[in-house]
Amino acid sequence: VHYAVTSALHARRARQWGCRAPPFKGHNWFLGVDNVLAMDKADKACQLPQFLYDEHVEMGCSTFAEGFIGDVFITYEPKNIQAILATQFQDFEIGQRRRGALLPLLGDGIFTTDGQMWEHSRSLLRPQFARDQIADLTLEQRHVEDMFKCFNMVDGWTSLDLAPVFFRFTMDSATEFLFGQSTHTQAAYAASSRGEKNVGEFQWADIGTRFDRGTYAIGVRARMADVYWLYYPKSFREDIREIHRFADACIADGMNRAKTSAPEKTAERYVFLDELLKATNDPVEIRSQLLNILLAGRDTTAGLLGWTFWNLTRHPDVYQKLRTAIVEEFGTYDSSKAITFTQLKACSYLQYVMMETLRLFPSVPANARLATRNTTLPYGGGPDGSSPVYVKKGQEVTYSVYVMHRRREIWGSNADEFVPERWIGRKLGWEYLPFNGGPRVCLGQQFALTEAGYVITKILQRFDKIEKTDPSDVQWHNYNTTSAPKRVLVRMHQAS
Ligand code: HEM
Fold first, then answer.
1. Which of 84, 273, 300 to mutate to test the pocket of ligand 1 (most atoms within 8 A of CB)?
2. CATH of 2-494, one of 3.40.50.970, 3.40.50.920, 1.10.630.10, 3.30.70.1350
3. Shortest-distance Cα residue to atom 17 of ligand 1
4. What is the C-alpha separation between 239 and 284, in angstroms, rounded?
5. Most buried residue among 223, 260, 330, 331 by CB atoms closer than 10 A?
6. Domain ranges of the chain
7. Which residues take part in binding heme (predicted)?
8. Ligand 1 pocket, 444 CB below 6 A?
9. ipTM of the complex, rounded to two decimals
10. pTM of the predicted model, to two decimals?
């Protein structure tokens, strides 16, 4: 009786608000279990984003409902995404599922909370991202040098898989920037490649692998929706313990620095942790916020770098054009010309290459929000899709920018081709959202583009040719919480 009454109430409200139902993707099994299994299969085959795209083609529309253990909505419609993220921000939240899935590893922080807790995190962290020194290029330079030490050069060429290279690089630079202490995974890797045993200074080198396993585990938990708590294996618990031990040791060091250092000494190098200690001295809160940012910033940037080189190896003309632009702007590798945030921004072709990579391969291909109250999506209902869609409190709306970024109606018939030139004179709107939009827009966008732009510049200065050694051109997504290419097999020639 209760179900019938609430259904009737929802139907009446939907009528009053002028809502119509969107197309429905049917299912053959109870509650749409077959849809869940099909998605899981695509995920295991590293093809989840393509699966979402194929679903869009199959449905022939940009918003639909799907049986997925309860009805959820899927949308690739800029107007709807703008509503969820900005104009109707109060009607949607990240919700308990994501929080629950991520909490054991990350704790409460900007990425895992809603409402007042999120507002508190955002106001604590935002001032840090407004600073000029947010991306410290001297720090990046040292880690890029460590990266090159891992390259094995034979007759001027190196052959390698760049995908793990970028994960080690971003781990080392992000931990130094956030925690004041690098994990030195690159130096440890170089030492072990030379057959040396890891010693003292590489004490935390395994944190990289542990964090990789940890993000994989939270990815599994996030996909399990409400029963995320069923997946909590011993290895995950051990990884969490060690990651927290690393963070706590860094925080204890930071607290000692704050007590003992003269003010001019702490200002020597920008450390995020030291800045947070000026605003709060709760070590658990600091640990949680730093780990939240590590998750938000590390894998995403590694993904951007990986997909950039995945594309460049398949477009040698773009590689050469970009290299010419970089050498013109910054000189060759040994040039003493400084590389600055402003110059990186001004190097238009470099920016276009990154924007085009993030269009075709956004680091967060799909995302979701839950309705906090009965509400609407402005578009997608009725036979022509022009009516609002009724969304019940608690219902999930999944949005995929991967699909939106490839829609032909928006990007033209070459939507799935890599063409950096399309960005010349193009204005950004809600149809392009690699960094999200609205009040929860990515805080690290400038940081990420500076860091990635710097790394791309240094690699192109140093290597004048790149060739792909992977016989396959299939996109394999290594997709836990974010997407990176599974492998980027290349051969690169060092410029003389
Ligand atoms: C290519 C690199 C990056 C991409 C594509 C990216 C993308 C995104 C996206 C899509 C979100 C929204 C997630 C959601 O609301 O569900 C987000 C949030 C966030 N990002 Fe980034 N990000 C990148 C790098 C970074 C970096 C380097 C940092 C920090 C150093 C960072 C810090 C954050 C933070 C703190 C949030 C949470 C904002 C909030 O909820 O208020 N991101 N990012």
1. 300
2. 1.10.630.10
3. 442
4. 17
5. 330
6. 2-494
7. 442
8. yes
9. 0.99
10. 0.95
